[in-house]
Sequence to fold (135 residues):
Amino acid sequence: MSSHASDQARVIPLRPVPAEPAEREEPTPREPLWRDVVGDVLRRERLAQERTLKDVADAARISMPYLSELERGRKEASSEVLAAAAHALGLGLADLLALTHRRLTLQARPRPLGSRTAPRRTEARSRPGDVRLAA
Fold:
C-alpha cells in the first residue's frame, strides 16, 4: 500500500459537503414577526380610512415618527400604545387583534399531517399510590 493512499484515508473534512441540489430540502418558511403583522394591519387600516400619519399619531397621542416605525415593524409597541393607535383608528384592541389574527392565518401555509412544532407528550398511566413529579 502506498503512503499516498493511506494519507487520503485519514483526511476528515472540516465542513460537511453540501448536498446535491435535488436532495436539498425546501427551506422552512419563517414565521412572521408579530410587530410586522401588527404594523401592516395598522398601516392598511389607516390608508383605508385615507388618514395621514400625523392625523392618527395626534389622535393616539404618540409621535408621528414612532407611529411610522410601528407601521414598518421596526418597534415593538406596548399594549397601551397599541390600544391608543387602535382607538385613534376607531378600533378596539380586540378588533386590532382580530385583524392581526386574520392576517396571520392568511400568511400561514398548511403543514403536512404529522409535522408539529413541539414533540408529542406521552404520559404513562399512573397506578393508585404512584407519586408523579411535575417536569
Observations:
- The longest helix spans residues 34-48.
- The helical segments are 3-9, 34-48, 53-60, 64-71, 79-88, 93-107.
